[in-house]
Specification:
The chain has one domain: 3-Layer(aba) Sandwich (Rossmann fold). By secondary structure, the chain is an alpha/beta fold. Strand 7, helix 6 and strand 8 form a beta-alpha-beta unit. The chain is globular and about 50 Å long. Strands 6-7-8-3-9-10 form a 6-stranded mixed β-sheet, sandwiched between helices. A 4-stranded antiparallel β-sheet has the order 2-1-4-5, with helices on one face. The structure holds adenosine-5'-diphosphate and magnesium ion (MG). Adenosine-5'-diphosphate binds next to strand 2 and helix 1. The site of magnesium ion has 2 residues, from helix 1.
């Protein structure tokens, strides 16, 4: 008989995970930490500059390896996979949303979203339908054929979110998703992330902005590489 794995329902499970850059001088960017993010949670991690946010994001996004501990992504121990499986795992399980959107400038919104499926060997016709559906889901059906330069910042980020969602990832991993947006537009992007969470998406947002972090269902702080569960989002714990 097999015992169910305790991490079965966790999208992210970190056990004693740490990251030290070798240097010299060596820098411990992440002190050993534990974290468990369940399917469907909306978690935010907030910390000031130099606190270890990018280091953590790189590890969570399978862009860098921790120097100790275990990272399980959707049940897979990521330390056991080779580089090509790691890239496949990243493509399958994680949708990235960045501060700077990273859209291809000479491709329409629709094409930017379709391109996220090219490596999955999805047939062209299916790609087209899925991209149109997901653009509709983020409220951009009417701008599907616009180029990024013809879109506002908020619309560009919606395209980027559509692109991140189209492969149906287990995790939406957002790095300062509102960092390039004015406050009203930022609020509408946070509303969208909240709505996606309401639809069952697992969302993790990393930010330096406490107001952004407070929009999550659950907030952690990071400071000097130490990750700490905050009392409650909105409870006003100071850092
Ligand atoms: P944040 O994104 O919160 O600003 P980082 O994760 O970029 O923080 O950095 C955390 C710490 O690790 C800082 O002290 C930074 O100087 C250091 N650091 C980041 N990247 C490297 C690296 N490649 N080599 C050595 N130290 C690094
Ligand atoms: Mg950073």
């Amino acid at each position: 008989m097999t015992t169910p794995h305790p991490d079965r329902a966790a999208v992210i499970s970190l056990e004693d995970l740490g990251l030290t850059y070798p240097g010299p001088p060596s820098v411990t960017a992440l002190h050993p930490c534990r974290l468990r993010v369940e399917k469907g949670e909306f978690v935010t991690i907030v910390g000031p500059s130099g606190s270890g946010k990018s280091s953590l994001l790189n590890v969570l996004g399978l862009l860098d390896n921790p120097t100790r501990g275990v990272y399980r992504l959707n049940g897979v121990d990521t330390s056991t996979v080779n580089d090509s499986r790691r890239a496949a795992l990243r493509g399958r399980e994680i949708g990235f949303v960045f501060q700077a959107f990273h859209l291809l400038p000479h491709r329409t919104a629709q094409e930017n979203v379709e391109l996220a499926m090219v490596y999955q060997r999805t047939p062209r016709r299916v790609r087209r339908t899925k991209a149109a559906d997901v653009l509709d889901r983020v409220g951009l059906a009417h701008r599907a054929h616009a180029l990024p330069t013809q879109l506002s910042g908020g619309e560009r980020q919606r395209v980027a979110i559509a692109r991140a969602l189209v492969a149906e990832p287990a995790l939406l991993l957002c790095d300062e998703p509102t960092g390039n947006l004015d406050s009203d537009t930022a609020a509408s992007i946070l509303d969208l992330l909240g709505r996606l969470h309401g639809e069952g998406m697992t969302v993790l947002v990393i930010t330096h902005d406490r107001h952004v972090a407070e929009r999550g269902q659950r907030m952690l702080t990071i400071r000097d590489g130490v990750l700490t569960e905050a009392a409650r989002a909105g409870a006003g714990a100071a850092w």
